[in-house]
Specification:
Helices cover about 25% and strands about 30% of the residues. It has about 190 residues and is α+β, with helices and mostly antiparallel strands.
Length: about 190
Amino acid sequence: MKKQLAAMLSLVMALSMAMTGCSGSSDSSGISAPSGNDLISSTQTNSQANGEADIPSSEATELTVHFGDDGSPFVMYLEDNSTAAAIAGYVGTTQWRLPVYSYDESDVMEYYDIPSRYEIPDNSEIVTEAHAGDVFYSDPNRIVLYYHDAEINEEYTKIGTFDATGEFVDAVENNPVLEGWGNQIVVISDGE
């Protein structure tokens, strides 16, 4: 009986040690980039993992956006609200490189999912029309860009605007698919 108890205890301890070694962390954002251009600083990840609601804020009035890694820079003029300030605060610490999506191959808008580790305040209200160049935040953690005018009925927080020039619309519509990834990307930075 003692041998069985000792064997059982040894097995439990061995399994416990094995499980401890397998409990590495993984990226829950679902976003992977093919290059070493990581989006997150370890300080941000650690503060979010510790449950700290340390949302950086910025007084920046604009961000720089590239449609594709080698795309021309376009200026997004930010709204004066806590949602835009939080996004600018995060982007001020590390640029965002996000995949591009659209609803049912939309020809008026596209969206970019922000990893869930970023806590962004939502100040949404019903929006019934979007103009080319309007940029909105959609809770939870999504940036929505309209590059053509549209009648809509959505709950959004407006965070910025682009000058909807022909060059801008062309850059959005002709953003190249990233080779080896099968998706387009957008790069958002503070321009510095």
